[in-house]
Design a protein that fits this description.
Elements lengths: L1 H6 L2 H20 L3 E5 L7 E5 L6 H17 L4 E4 L4 H11 L8 E4 L2 E4 L1 H9 L2 H5 L20 E3 L7 H4 L10 E3 L6
Parallel strand pairs: 2-3
Antiparallel strand pairs: 1-5, 2-4, 4-5, 6-7
Bound molecules: zinc ion (2 copies).
One zinc ion binds next to loops.
């Protein structure tokens, strides 16, 4: 009887509740999903996005994240899956999900999340902390060479890929990363 009372004592329940709360708190405070990482981008901010206006919410979310990072002045490796199909596969492989939405952000190779997550991190000031150490660049991310598309027509094959399909400098669209803003 005594043991039974002990098991159901209010103190114990309170303790359990506190532990549960703490676990919940820790979960929401962990911005990075440990297992999801993007190889080769340990020193970058990578954003997978689309410039297609097909789905309004997606397009707006992509613009939002783009602008948010732009306002903070950091250099971003923007990977437009609409301009380069291999980016989509890359992202799907990284998160292990074929139905991944856009945009998706990785900082220092670690998965951060979508536009909603970024917005919360930005509002709470956490984003600024996460971006510490990245050089601030002016004039921000505006590029006159590619018009911020981050891709330009291939200067190596001038579209010859269409015939031979063997240019190592450009992708399936005959585009190469803008040499001016993407390094
Ligand atoms: Zn080419
Ligand atoms: Zn450019």
């Amino acid at each position: 009887m005594g043991a039974l009372l002990l098991n159901h004592s209010p103190v114990r329940l309170e303790k359990e509740q506190k532990e549960k709360e703490l676990m919940r708190k820790e979960k929401t405070e962990t911005h990075f999903k440990e297992k999801v990482s993007l190889a080769g981008s340990e020193e970058r901010i990578v954003v997978y996005l689309t410039s297609l206006r097909g789905v309004r919410k997606t397009y707006e979310d992509c613009s939002k994240v783009r602008m948010m990072l732009n306002n903070l002045g950091v250099a971003v490796d923007e990977r437009d899956i609409n301009l380069n199909a291999s980016y989509k596969k890359e992202l799907q492989n990284a998160v292990g999900n074929n139905k991944v939405s856009l945009p998706q952000v990785f900082i220092r190779g670690k998965y951060v999340g979508n536009a909603d997550v970024m917005e919360k991190l930005n509002e709470s000031g956490v984003l600024e902390k996460l971006l510490k150490g990245f050089p601030i660049q002016y004039p921000k991310n505006d590029c006159s060479k590619c018009g911020n598309a981050r891709f330009v027509s291939c200067s190596e094959c001038s579209g010859g890929w269409k015939v031979m399909n063997n240019c190592q400098y450009c992708n399936e669209n005959g585009l190469m990363r803008c040499p001016s803003c993407c390094t």
